[in-house]
Amino acid sequence: MSPSSRRAPQGARRRGPAVTLLLLLATSLFAVLALSGTAQAADGDRTVVGTLRNSADDNAPVPGVTVDVETSDGGQYTAESNEEGRFEVAVPASDTGTLTVSLDTDTLPDGVDLREGAPDTLRPTGSLSTVTANFALGPDDRQVSTKWDQVPQLLYNGLLFGIVLSLGALGLSMVFGTTGLTNFAHGELVTFGAVMTYMGNRVFGLPIMVSVLLAVVLSAGFGWLNDKGLWAPLRRRGTGLIAMMIVSIGLQFLLRNLYQYFTGGRALTYREYVTPAGQDAFGLFTYTTRDVVIILVSLLTLIAVTLALQFTRLGRATRAVSDNPALAASTGINVNRVITTVWIFGAALAGLGGAFLGFSQSVTYQLGAQVLLLIFAATCVGGLGSIWGAMLGSIIIGLFVETSTLLIPSELKYAGAMILLIIVLLFRPQGLLGRAQRIG
Amino acid sequence: MIDAFTGALHDGFGYVAISYCLAAIGLNIQFGYSGLLNFGQAAFLAIGGYIMGAAIATSGIPTIPAMLIAILFAVALALILGVPTLRLRADYLAIVTIAAAEILRLVFGTSFREYFRGKDGVTGFADGFRGLNPLPEYDGFFLTYSRNELWTIIVGWIVVILICVLVWALMRSPWGRVLRGIREDEDAVRSLGKNVYGYKMQALVLGGVIGCIGGFIGAFGAASVQADTFNLDFTFIALTMLILGGAARVLGPVVGAILFWAVLSFLGSILSDLSANPTVAQFMNADQASNVRLMLVGLVLMLLMIYRPQGIFGDRKEIALDAR
C-alpha cells in the first residue's frame, strides 16, 4: 500500500467535495441552460430539391423539365426546373413517409437524355426538411480515381485531425504528468468547448471567432472549476489514483448526459464556415481556408505552450512537479497552484480542440467521448506525461486513422488506431518519447 | 406507484440484470479481489453473445458446443489482453482492455456480416434454449415476465448462485488468498516465490469467462445480440454495480446489480411520470428524463467512490487500493 492512499484527517473537510460537486453541477447547468430553449427544430414543409445539369453540354442547366413527387399516402406534387436547372417540390410536413420522386423523361429537351442505366425514379431517404434528389443527365464523365490517388488527401486530412487531436492530448498528458490522474472525463472538456462555441455562435449570434475565443475562456474556467471543485479536495483527502480514475468515469457519465439533456441526440452545426468551398492544392488534395486557419491557430497554440513550459518560471515549475512532486514541493514550489494552472490550461486547450472538431464533426453530446479513446491512444503512443510525446502521438494517430482507410473499411478506422495503441504498448510500453522507467 | 414498484422488481430480477450481474461478478474477481483494472468487460459479454449466436445461427452448431466455443474465444481474448499488459502498471491494462472492447464492438457491428449481420445483429439462435423450457403456457401474470423470459431468468439466477458458490469457495482457498495478497502488495507476494503474473492471468481469464456466461444469458433473454449494447458504458455500469454492492465480497455484485436495475427502473418510472406533467415537461421531457436518470448514475458512482468506496457490504480497508 503506497503512502498516497493514507487517510486525511476526518472532520472539517469531510463535506468539501460534495458541496463543491454540487456547485460544479449548478454552474454547468446554468452555463448550458440557454441551449434548451433554442434547440427545437423548426417545423415546416419538406422540400424536395435538385439541380438538373447535362454533362454532355459542359454541365449546362436543363430548364423546363417536370419532376413529380408522390408521397406514401398517395399525394401528388409536381414542379418544373427553372433557368438554373433547379427544381423545388414542397411536400406537407404531415407526411413523413417515403417519397417517390420521378423525372418525366418526355419533358426533357431534345438532345438531353437520362444517363444510360441511371434511374428516372428515386426514393430519397432522410427525415430532414430538405430532401435532395439527384438525376443524372448526359454521359458518365466522372473521373475514375484509384485508391492511391487519395493518399495526399488522406495525409492532409490526417495531419489536420492529428493537430486538432493534440490540443486535447496535451491537456490530458499534462494533467496525468502532474497529478497521475487518468482523466476519463477529459473528452467532456472537449465537448464543453464545442457546445460553448455553438452557444455563442448560434444562441447569442456572436461571430465564430469571438465564440471560439469565448469558448476557450469558459473552458479554462471550467477546468479551474473541475480542479477546485472536485480534484483538489480529493487530493487533500488523499484519495487513491484508481479511486480518482473511477470518480472521473462517474463525472464523464454525469457530464455527457448533462450535455445530452440540453442538446438532445441531434448533431448541431455552427452558423458559419460549416461547408466552406474547397481549394485545390497542386492537384494533390483539396483544402479549405477554414482548415488552414485551424491548423495555423493550433500550431501557434502548441508552440506557445511548449515554449512556455520550457522557458517561463511557471512552466519550469510544472515540469518539476511532473518529475517529482515531493521534491518540487520541498524546493518551495506551490504544487497545488501549479496543478490548478495545469488544469486551467489543459481544459482551455481541450476546449479549443473541441471548438475546432465541432466544424468538421458537428457538435453532439458525445463529441468528446468519441475522441477520448483516440486521445488516450495518442498520449500512450507518444508517451504518457510527455509533452512532445502527446503531440507526436496525436499526429501519428491522426495520420494512421485517415490513411488506414486505404486498407480497411472506414467504419473500422478507429479500431485501427486502437490496434496501433496495443502494438505500441506491447513493444514499447513507455511510448515513443516516454522515459523508460519502471512501469510494472 | 404500484406500477413503478412492479417495474422495479421486474427489471431488478430480469435477464438484463443477470447479464450485468455476471459481468460484475467477473469484474469482482479481477478488480475486487486481484486489483486488475479490466475496463473492457463488455468485450467478454460481446464474445459470449456473438460467438455463440453466430455459431448456432450461421453454422448450425448445437447450443452447448456453441457455448463452449464462445468460452474458448473468451479465454483466448483474456490471454491476448493479459500477455502484454499484466507486467505493466495497472492503468495500462485499463487502457488496453478499453481499446480491445472498442475494437471488438466495431468489428462485430461492421465486419464479417455473413456471421454477425452488421447493424441488425445476430438473431435466430435462441430456439434450442427455449425448446428446453419446461414451463407451461401461461398469460404473463408473474411480474409480467413472458414464458421465455421467466425460463431465461430461472436458469440465469441458478447460474448466478452456482458461480457465487464457486467464487466463495475459490476466495477462501489458498489461491484466493494469493490473489488478495497480490492486490495488497505484489512485491511481498513475489518475494514468497509466487508467480504473480500467472495468478493475475488466471484471475483475468476466470473473470472473463464469467462475463462471457453473462453474455449467454443476455443473448438468450433478448433472443438477439446487437454490437452497440457492448459499448464503454456497459463496463462502467457493471463497475458501478460492483462498487455499489461492495467489491471483494461474494454477494456484492449480485446485490449491486439487483439494486441498481431496480432503482434505475423505479427512477425511470417516477421521472417519466413527472415529465408527463405539463409544468415539469417545460424543464424535462421524456428524453431528458432518461438523461437525468443516467446523470444520477454518474453522480452516484462519484459519491460512492468518494464517500463510501466499500459500497454496501465491503470492507473499507480491502479496497483502499492504489496504482502507484
CATH domain class name of the largest domain in chain A: Mainly Alpha
Shape of chain A: elongated
Compressed to H and E, one letter per element, the order of chain B equals HHHHHHEHHHHHEHHHH
Helix content of chain B: over 70%
- The count of strands of chain A amounts to 11
**Biggest sheet layout of chain B:** 2 strands, antiparallel
Strand content of chain B: under 5%
Under CATH at level 1, the class of chain B stands as Mainly Alpha
Alpha carbon gyration radius of chain B: 20 Å
What number is the mean pLDDT of chain A? 82
Descriptive account of the structure:
- The complex is a heterodimer of chains A (440) and B (324).
- Chain A is an alpha+beta fold and 440 residues long.
- Chain A is 54% helix and 9% strand.
- Chain A has two domains: 46-132, Immunoglobulins (Immunoglobulin-like), CATH 2.60.40.10; 150-427, ABC transporter involved in vitamin B12 uptake, BtuC, CATH 1.10.3470.
- Chain A contains twelve helices and eleven strands.
- Helix content of chain B is 73%, strand content 1%.
- Chain B contains 15 helices and two strands.
- Chain B has helices spanning 2-13, 15-33, 41-57, 63-85, 90-110, 113-116, 127-131, 147-171, 174-184, 186-191, 196-222, 232-245, 252-276, 278-281, 286-307; strands spanning 122-123, 224-225.
- The longest helix of chain B is centred in the middle third of the chain and has 27 residues, at 196-222.
- At the A-B interface, helix 1, helix 5, helix 10 and helix 12 of A face helix 5, helix 12 and helix 15 of B.
List keywords for this structure.
heterodimer, A: 440 residues, Immunoglobulin-like, ABC transporter involved in vitamin B12 uptake, BtuC, four-stranded antiparallel beta sheet, three-stranded mixed beta sheet, 11 strands, 54% helix, disordered N terminus, B: 324 residues, mainly alpha, two-stranded antiparallel ribbon, globular
